[in-house]
Amino acid sequence: MRLLFFISSAISIAFAVLADNINNVWLKINNTVIHAEVAASKAAREEGLSYRDALAANAGMLLVFETSRKVCLWMPEVRFALDAAFVDADGVIVGTVHMMPHTDTLHCAPQPVLYALEVNAGWLEANEVRVGDKVHGLSTSN
């Protein structure tokens, strides 16, 4: 009976880890770890953090684009301020922006990127994240 329980528990843990890898990712920038929800489809990227009331500390949303391209972000339905880091295909941060809630202002990457990482306003500065830093944990930069 204990063996059956152990196997069942191990399978449950494996599925939980697998599910986390599908929808979320642990990223490391310098010495800081962040847990990011992944938005890889066009619909998920467009919805982003809209209609949410908050984002947990050390959490974010990783927008993943099909190909490297110059992208813009906006905040019409986001209820709280965010910072974003634009990340190229090599995992290097090439630009950062601060975005205010409920605005249609476009915040564009300075060059083609494969990712954009949205985090709570002030998180980038508080964690000394700068242009040129490497984001670890991305599919192309592990």
Automatic annotation (TrEMBL):
This is DUF192 domain-containing protein. InterPro entries: DUF192, Saro_0823-like_sf. Coiled coil: none annotated. It comes from Candidatus Doriopsillibacter californiensis. Pfam families: DUF192.
